[in-house]
Amino acid sequence: VTGKSSAPSWLVRSTHALLLLLGLLDMTENFHFMTMLQAAEHGIAPSASEISFQIWESLFKFHVGYLGVLLLSFVLPQRTAGERGLVFAARWVNVPVGVLLYCVPQPLATVLLFCRFGFFVYALVAVGWLFGGEGSEVTQPRELSRVAAGSSAPA
Known about the structure:
Helix content is 74%, strand content 0%. The chain is mainly α.
């Protein structure tokens, strides 16, 4: 998301903050999980409270992610069908599936987990395809400098 978004600046900043927090939480959760695995390799089983904290850590991370992706859907451009598809999936697949995971019986939750995973893969591919292409201003500094200068002349 660049400064060229038509979304209000508070929304852009909030989205950035939540997604940065998501990255930090994911890293912290991974470190905690690796620490528990290393202890288990040395014959030290995780306590019930440590397992409980790991679950809380993971749930909190996912909730921050749901909110961050939801806000991102209001910041992303919607000029093309691909962009509109990504925004639709962020609003109407990611969040509802994430909420339903906590409300349905286990067999259905398993199916929803695969739906959530499918959304993650789709979103990753869509973002790369929509915003990371060779002609993208994000990957072409010369294009960005021309846009910033308001000129179509070569930089």
